[in-house]
Specification:
single chain, 223 residues, Trefoil (Acidic Fibroblast Growth Factor, subunit A), eight-stranded antiparallel β-sheet
Amino acid sequence: MGVGGGLPLRDIGELLEEVGLAGEEQRGTLAAKGQRELLVEVGLLKDNGDLWVEVLGLLSSPEPTALLARLGALRPQTWEVSDRDQQVWVLQGETLVMVPRSSNVTPATVTILPFKYPESLEQGRGVPIYLGTQDPDMCLFCEEVDRWPRLWLKEKNILDLYNQVGPVRPFLFYHSRDGNTSSFESVAFPGWLIASSQVGQPIFLTSDLGTTNNTNFYLNLKA
């Protein structure tokens, strides 16, 4: 169990991974070392005794919300996103498109931050997060166009969304894990997930699951 009867060590690692603060390959640090070393390794904690005392208190909390909010504010992690066909998210102008992975392709730098107040949203659908890009700073959001949900990128700093006191629903997604893949469901349009299909086409929203559309993605932590 965690310090002070808090979450088990493996659950801390899973939570950090779900909200985009650690990669699956770093979870072995928990088994080999422990909670403090994991947080240092992913860049969320320096070897600072005072801050570690604060983190210990958060780890001892019966709910992970305070922990996730505190760690998320320290340093957003950056990711590359790919699908089952080895296509990666690539930024073309203000659009994320799917391009086959190769040495000549530069994947988009994707940022993830958790929503600080997940208890205010529907439970059991996944961890609510904001999804953004770096260089330039933009965020994914959903809106209705001609009575259909659409997925867009909008110029927005992800930290501005993170610091809002309430949910900015068009920009929020429920992040769910299925083995080593992730799915992202729109909070504003429940049942609609981020999807990819053909090479060179933008990512989009779909409610048509289990077809040729892919809604499961791999998150690869950038160095």
